[in-house]
Amino acid sequence: MQPTLIVLAAGMGARYGGLKQLDVIGPNGATIMDYSVYDAAQAGFGKVVFIIRGHFRAAFEHAFAKRYHKALEIAFVEQEPDKELPVGFLPPPDRSKPWGTGHALLMAGPQTKTPFAVINADDFYGRQAYTAMAAFLHTGAAQQNNYAMVSYQTGNTLSESGGVSRGVCSVNDRGMLTEVVECHQIHKTPEGNIVCESPDGTPTTLLPDTQVSMNFWGFTPDFFGHLQSAFHSFIRERGQEAKSEFYIPTVVNQLLQDRRASVRVLTTDSSWFGITYKEDRPYAESRIRQLIEQGVYPHSIIRP
Q1: CB neighbour burial string for 76-107, b if at least 16 within 10 angstroms, e if fewer
Q2: How far apart are CA 74 and CA 33, in angstroms?
Q3: Where does residue 5 fall: left (phi above 0), alpha (psi -120 to 50 degrees), or beta otherwise?
Q4: For residue 18, what pLDDT is reported?
Q5: CA-to-CA distance for 304 and 90, rounded, in angstroms?
Q6: I need a surface site. Which of 8, 145, 152, 220 has the fewest CB within 10 A?
Q7: How many Cβ atoms sit within 10 Å of the Cβ of residue 57?
Q8: Are residues 73 and 2 in contact, defined by beta-carbon separation less than 8 angstroms?
Q9: Which pLDDT band, with edges at 50, 70 and 90, does 203 fall under?
């Protein structure tokens, strides 16, 4: 049974200044998502579920629906602030955005019957990352409460244009994740140090080789049960906040601390890059050109 790829594409791109999911970085209109789907198909994934917002669904489907249907099964699901909420709960009046990556992933539950991987729409993870994750999902290593993630070194995931958010990981000598903590405003200081803001607001220094999560996870469908239970608890505790966010790494970390799940850390030689800010786009375009010149990709993965 082929695994499913779930693409988190509902972000509004506030820091980017627009829908970066649709921005072109390669020949014939190719986006970062196109390269992600291409790599996933090459690795053996059989279905892609795009999680989007309703108000840009038409534009999104027009851009992507016909690109992959011959090679992959495609589905679109919408993330909105009023979906998957506990019975009787109403979002606060000033709540205009959905509830974060964990909430987004919940939307894909009805469309996901196989082991699956989760990625961000605006991150380029590299061919080997998909191959490693597909191998984990294919071989039977992915079972109930036995999951995986692809990790990257902090120093290779920064943006020169501003701070970024990452799940900072602790990994034991068996290659298993023991803790993941969502940290924000990770950036390099003028002195060359990498610093971040921990969840409680405390400034923290990170080593360049600190392993971080880039939201490339591998799960089995039982994870949706954990996710929904954690989301309802989150809503009870923080649902009245206008900007609170429910993150996938937070759910994973709680499962780890409660010893209810294990997570294998997959490392690869793949290079990551992304487009958090508008200023990141020229670098992403140059990296794609290099990969095409090196023969990693054909000149165009999109037929004109």
Answers
A1: bbbbbeeebbeeeeebeeebebbbbbbbbbbb
A2: 13
A3: beta
A4: 54
A5: 46
A6: 145
A7: 14
A8: no
A9: confident
